[in-house]
Amino acid sequence: MIEASAADRLSQRLRDARQNKRAALIGYVVAGDPDLETTELVITALADAGLDVLELGIPYSDPLADGPTVAAAGQRALAAGTTLEAIFGLVERLQQLVPIILFTYFNPVFHYGIERFAERAARVGASGLIVPDITLEEISEVRGSLQSKGLPFPLLISPTTEPTRAGKIAAASDGFVYVVSRLGVTGEDNRPDLAWLRSRVEQLRLVTDKPLAVGFGISTPAQVAAVADWADGVIVGGGLVSSYSGSSGVTAARLAASYVSSLLGALARGD
């Protein structure tokens, strides 16, 4: 069993960013894209570059929330033979470098076994689990299993979620609240309406004191700077995956780290 609390490391990273008057940078990569050896090099480089938190996508054949860039990365990972057990091993090796939140869909968790998945994730030192295709009414078993192992379970609030329901989702979310910046799937296209999004975050501040992290479609330093001014975390997925797409090994790691480094200066908060 991992001795240090991975959940505590996640909370500490978010607190540290806040105390340093900046938003936390949360990056997303797909495990096994284009192979697990490259993923390990990329994660190590991202941690060295200063990434605060990593969402590690588990490749899945029917990724409903993934845009073309991330979906293609998932297909490359599946073609490379990436397995869930190999991903757990990767997390165990790297979790001391950066808090790693697993990102997957309900079907893989269900087939692995909800309780078994939670136990295995906790044992390897994961800092939480995100399951974007599970609704508030369906979370009890997954959330209960994760809570029993001390694992955070961040939930997503979409742009179409009405305020009362958004408050309930925020109340049930652990670790942080994932505020979806726009309708559609992940990726760099279809830029979010930042003025509306700021209003959304300010409304959520009235009903929760949990950290609010914004993601989907955030990819440039200018967008990161705008969101960081009023959010606790900025989630960058498609842009990061794209930064090293088509490369592997140390080249992929260098490109990914360079991309993250280009965003770090944009994280300062206005408060």
Task: Summarize this structure as a short list of keywords or feature phrases.
single chain; 271 residues; alpha/beta; TIM Barrel; eight-stranded parallel β-sheet
How is this structure best described in words?
Strands 4-3-2-1-8-7-6-5 form an 8-stranded parallel beta sheet. The chain is of the alpha/beta class and 271 residues long. Strand 7, helix 10 (221-228) and strand 8 (233-236) form a beta-alpha-beta unit. It has a single domain, classed as Aldolase class I (TIM Barrel). The chain has helices at 6-19, 36-49, 68-79, 84-94, 106-112, 114-124, 140-148, 163-172, 194-205, 221-228, 238-243, 249-264; strands at 24-30, 53-57, 100-103, 129-130, 155-157, 177-180, 212-215, 233-236.
Structure in a nutshell:
The chain has 271 residues and is an alpha/beta fold. It is 48% helix and 12% strand. The chain has one domain: Aldolase class I (TIM Barrel, Alpha-Beta Barrel), CATH 3.20.20.70.
Fold blueprint:
Layout: H1 6-19, E1 24-30, H2 36-49, E2 53-57, H3 68-79, H4 84-94, E3 100-103, H5 106-112, H6 114-124, E4 129-130, H7 140-148, E5 155-157, H8 163-172, E6 177-180, H9 194-205, E7 212-215, H10 221-228, E8 233-236, H11 238-243, H12 249-264
Parallel strand pairs: 1-2, 1-8, 2-3, 3-4, 5-6, 6-7, 7-8
Helix pairs in contact: 2-4, 2-12, 4-6, 6-7
